[in-house]
Specification:
8 helices; Rossmann fold; 144 residues; 52% helix; single chain; 5-stranded parallel β-sheet; alpha/beta
């Protein structure tokens, strides 16, 4: 299998012009995977940005429509719970982030994220590299 596992910090850059948005958009040319909670995470972010006045209702609706049709292979979260708990205990990451890590572990693919907290937490994991998948900061892909 090829491609990447991506989280909401990457996917939201497709809809909101932020630093590294171009890099995030370029990832759409390769196979992408995520746990099924990605959609909930993204909708939560869109709703928050709408309430804060950062996005118009039209922008939110357009982003939600594009998100629903995005070429991301979504994987069920339930089979990932046990692995997520192991990762959460070791890395001190929230279980939500560990569901993305567990998806990457299951698929043997790197996780691409712009979540600095997740990147930092996995850097100091005591688990072996066969247990914690490779975490690739989105910023490092910009240098390639």
């Amino acid at each position: 299998m090829s491609g990447y596992v991506v989280d909401a910090t990457v996917v939201m850059k497709w809809f909101i012009d932020e630093p590294l948005s171009r890099v995030a958009l370029a990832l759409r040319s390769v196979p992408l995977h995520a746990p099924d909670l990605l959609l909930s995470d993204c909708i939560t972010i869109l709703a928050r940005k709408s309430r804060q006045g950062e996005l118009t209702d039209k922008q939110v609706d357009e982003a939600a429509d594009l998100l629903s049709r995005a070429a991301i292979d979504l994987h069920p979260s339930r089979p990932l719970f046990e692995r997520s708990l192991i990762l959460a205990r070791d890395t001190k990451c929230p279980v939500r982030g560990c569901l993305y890590l567990a998806t990457a572990w299951l698929l043997e693919l790197p996780l691409v994220t712009a979540d600095a907290e997740l990147i930092e937490a996995t850097r100091f994991s005591s688990l072996s590299s066969t247990t914690v998948p490779t975490v690739t900061p989105l910023a490092t892909l910009a240098a390639r």
